[in-house]
Amino acid sequence: MAAEANAQTSAQAVRRPIVETLRTVFGPLVQLLIFVVGSAVALSLLVILLSLVQLGARPDLLTRTLTILPQVLIDGLVRGFLFSTIALGYTMVYGVLEFINFAHGEIFMVGGVTGAAVGLFLASIGLLEGMNPLFFVLLVVLIGMIVSGTLAVTVERVAYRPLRGTPRLVPLISAIGVSLVLQDVVRLIMTNSPMGFNARYNAPDFGPPIRLFEMTLGDRPVPIIISPKALVFISAAVIMLIVLNYLVNATRLGKAIRATAQDMPTASLMGINVNRIITLTFLIGGALGGAAGALFGLNVGTVNPYMGFIPGLKAFTAAVLGGIGNITGAMVGGLVLGFLEAFVASYLSLFTNGALSGAAYADIVAFSILILILIFRPSGLLGESTTQKV
Where do the TM regions start and end (predicted)? Predict the structure, then answer.
């Protein structure tokens, strides 16, 4: 009996950490799913309501609204995961050092340019044609992560570590300076190489768009499609978010990162090498930015030295929207912002009958949200409900 009791106790002791790990890793993803579904439903109902308001003057508006709605949701997911993967770099650095690394957009850009350089090299030696697309994605993402992660660590060592302990404005100015330097250095390299300023992102053929399903509106069938590159981008982003969540919340390294973020002097006294943890934080954030840049370049087809500036600012907006310093908040903020931008870009022109261009006003919406969040809820959507930061 005693042996059986001991065996049951041991089994429960083993089972408890597994359950706790699963809850820690996948719990935030459930929260993320709730925000994704909630944002999609709320915005969909809003545009349908607006189309019903104008139904008398424009009888075809509701049909046109419903026709493009599924495609707008897919576009919002792609944009949202882009902002989320970049925002994670902002939120990790802020969680540990409590300053905004405004050079992170350029880390993202370097990942995209690196991916384009790999594609150009493979094309020049004749290996690109016929290469398995998934192998190509793995290759450019891995090299982009290595290059961008190494660059982020170098930036931290050269431009940020000597300024640690100074007023927060000092490293912020340094980050802006690093951003400008990286832009011009990459521009110099690209314009004096076969890539050129607007470099084409060479990639193997990913095949035709994937038809998800087909809707029938009236007598007209409407196919809902997604490009294979966008599907790869979404899948890779989800995998990266799951791995990062596991790393930060269920490993010894993650515990050390969270301890350093909570109280750096005490963490140092407890035996944690604070400098090493900060370096690893920059390495992880930079690698995520590089992977996002490589996937983004693959998705849009071209890269240039200034491609990271606007996405970097929008990712910062997403991090603030979700609650900067909070990993789940960065994910949530990125996806919510992605949906908002996609709906404005697609429906503003439709509802104003062409008087306003939605694509031109999408950026205004993003930065208006930043201003409103800073005024009315500086902690972000999840800032108050989460006690653990990165």
Answer: 32-57, 77-100, 107-128, 134-155, 167-190, 230-248, 277-298, 318-343, 355-376
382 neighbors 321 (Cβ within 8 angstroms): no
Burial of 252 (0-12, 13-18, 19+ CB in 10 A): exposed
C-beta separation of 325 from 390 below 8 A: yes
185 — pLDDT class (breaks 50, 70, 90): very high
pLDDT reading at 156 higher than 50 = yes
**In the block, which residue shows the tokens 């006003």?**
361
Q: What is the pLDDT of residue 5?
A: 46
DSSP-assigned states of every residue in 289-323: HHHHHHHHHHHHSEE-TTTTHHHHHHHHHHHHHH-
**Contact residues for 75 (Cβ-Cβ < 8 A; gap 6+):** 342, 345, 346
Q: Do 294 and 111 touch, CB atoms closer than 8 A?
A: yes
- Structurally, the chain folds into a number of domains equal to 1
Question: Is the CB of residue 100 less than 8 Å from the CB of residue 94?
Answer: yes
The SS3 of residue 353 is coil
Question: Is 134 a member of any domain?
Answer: yes
Rounded mean pLDDT, 202-224: 75
pLDDT value for 11: 46
In a domain, 83, yes or no: yes
Closest CA to 382 of 140, 10, 34: 34
Asked if residue 186 has pLDDT above 60, the reply is yes
Question: Which has the higher per-residue pLDDT, 112 or 350?
Answer: 112
Q: Is the pLDDT of residue 305 over 80?
A: yes
pLDDT of 19 over the 80 cut: no
Q: Is the whole model's pTM more than 0.85, yes or no?
A: no
Query: Does residue 183 lie in a domain region?
Result: yes
For residue 88, what are the domain limits? 20-48+71-376
Tokens representing residue 327 in the block: 């990993």
Is 295 part of any domain? yes
Question: Rg of the chain's alpha carbons, rounded to an integer?
Answer: 23
pLDDT at 383: 64
* CA 333 – CA 339 distance, rounded (Å): 10
